[in-house]
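Please describe the entry underneath.
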Amino acid sequence: MDPAHLPLIKQALQRQHRKETFEHALGKAVRESGLDFGIYIKIVSEVREAAYRDGKDVEDAARGFLAEK
């Protein structure tokens, strides 16, 4: 994971509404930061891959990336 993407993950997790998916919250964070869709795809792909590999849900995998830093 590119360290420059970690603030977007953190923002998405902090501002995520109760029944909102991580992906939706991340999309809002990326748009609000003025970044393009390619960044969103790259982050979601890496988080989903980690979730699948570790047998976790997407939100736990995203939190794992923040814990690693």
